[in-house]
Amino acid sequence: xxxxxxxxxxxxxxxxxxxxxxxxxxxxxxxxxxxxxxxxxxxxxxxxxxxxxxxxxxxxxxxxxxxxxxxxxxxxxxxxxxxxxxxxxxxxxxxxxxxxxxxxxxxxxxxxxxxxxxxxxxxxxxxxxxxxxxxxxxxxxxxxxxxxxxxxxxxxxxxxxxxxxxxxxxxxxxxxxxxxxxxxxxxxxxxxxxxxxxxxxxxxxxxxxxxxxxxxxxxxxxxxxxxxxxxxxxxxxxxxxxxxxxxxxxxxxxxxxxxxxxxxxxxxxxxxxxxxxxxxxxxxxxxxxxxxxxxxxxxxxxxxxxxxxxxxxxxxxxxxxxxxxxxxxxxxxxxxxxxxxxxxxxxxxxxxxxxxxxxxxxxxxxxxxxxxxxxxxxxx
Length: 380
Known about the structure:
This protein is α+β, with helices and mostly antiparallel strands. It contains 13 helices and eleven strands. The chain has helices at 3-8, 21-33, 36-39, 74-85, 93-113, 136-149, 166-174, 199-210, 223-241, 250-258, 304-319, 330-334, 354-378; strands at 46-52, 55-62, 118-121, 154-161, 178-188, 214-216, 263-268, 274-283, 286-294, 322-327, 339-348. The protein has an eleven-stranded mixed β-sheet with strand order 1-2-3-4-11-5-10-9-8-7-6, with helices on both faces. Helix 4 runs antiparallel to helix 5 (93-113), helix 6 (136-149) crosses helix 7 (166-174) and helix 9 crosses helix 10. The longest helix has 25 residues, at 354-378.
């Protein structure tokens, strides 16, 4: 086979994401039975079921109202969250100032794109939403259906990356979708050969075996544990990191667990309250970890975060799952066998006014030329 023919072959991609109709419908039903802000306190959106080409998806419909959580709002993701991330450069004030100026200069461009007024396919309202395999006919069908139904909304699909989604990305590009770089994520996969654990992975599991805290399994969560789980999540993701992250409430954690959408695990003081919690979302052959929290007031030496990550990695390894570990804690995840990948938002704007189409195209170019090098250089 010639080199040109080899290069033109479709990218290989396993179909690792299932989107079981019953689970999609349970998720959408939850967000239609209760006010969204009772479940995710900083989010405003509408959630529907969308079916195309034999696949079922959750679909979110977003207006242009701000502020809104970044999981439905590109302005929050590309401007507000990006500016907040510059806190990591507090020791390099000149670089931090330059990045803030660059991000601020992009705000009018993001506004001109109108991307906050969107229909987002496959949005489970997590930071990471693994996407089922989509071939070109499926992409063409969903693009046509959504563009006809929502002629004034951008069509968005988040959480695509070159490791998990090469064929889907190729199909989306062929059907006119633009790939907007979003962040650098970490993938823990290909464990079938049972490679040796890294030194840090061994230490994490030794800590888990020796911890004085009690193990709490998926069937062991009581009503009070859901409220405590919210507190622990808040301590990590909202207080330690940024309040721009999704504000998952105790009601959300309880309902997602009771309806079988996520599983939970954690650690508690003997006979007492939780000190660490994790929520796992298993979808076909893919695992994500949308909920992690721990008591940040306890000594780092207790290893609570390390143990929760070990629980998720062991779950993935035992079941042969492709584990998308999402973004953040770059060095920590690399030392535990994960590899980096750039994550993209796919955007279709071909049915929108020229001004918005141009803005999306310019965003794609700026993010490719400037954003991706920055994401890789600083592991953002």
